[in-house]
Amino acid sequence: MSFQDNIPGVFARVFTQLWPTGTYTPLAGDAVSCSIRLIQEIESQPGFEVNYGQSGTEIEALVSEVSEPGIGSTFVLNSTTYTVKQVISNDGYRVRMAVR
Fold first, then answer.
1. Which of 8, 28, 57, 95 could make an S-S bridge to 90, C-beta 3.0–4.6 Å?
2. DSSP single-letter state for residue 51
3. What distance in Å separates the CA atoms of residue 72 and residue 26, rounded to the nearest whole number?
4. pLDDT, block means (10 residues), the chain with 100 residues
């Protein structure tokens, strides 16, 4: 078995052991339970005497659990609902989205 063959299992173990379980609801279809990595970052705008920042929130989930979430689909984590604004990346194993 090659390294490539092991990647899905490795991601599944990492996500289920490190990240909490939430609920993904697609635009069409039934809600599913999935592991969610919530990423909250501050991006500053350099070049000013005072740096102005814009906070952004992203979610990362396993493609095997959520496929390719559409804009407007939702994730619920700890009673907070996050709506997908944009799919940032999908490497076939993990999908990362900007949410609000």
1. 95
2. -
3. 8
4. 69 76 96 95 56 76 94 97 96 93
